Amino acid sequence: MRSAGLQVATVHDHRDVLFGGHAPEPDDHLLEDLRKKMRETGAHIGIATDGDADRFGIVDADGTFLQPNYVIAILFDYLVESRGWKNGVAKSVATTNLINALARYHGIDLHETPVGFKYIGELIMQDKIAIGGEESAGLSIRHHVPEKDGVIAGLLCCEAVARRGKPLGEQLRAISNQVGSFFPERQNFRLTPEVKQKFTEKLRLDPKEFCGHKVEKVIRTDGLKLVFDDGSWVCYRLSGTEPVVRVYTEARSERGSEKLSTAGKHWIFE
Question: How far apart are the first and last CA of the chain?
Answer without folding.
Answer: 53
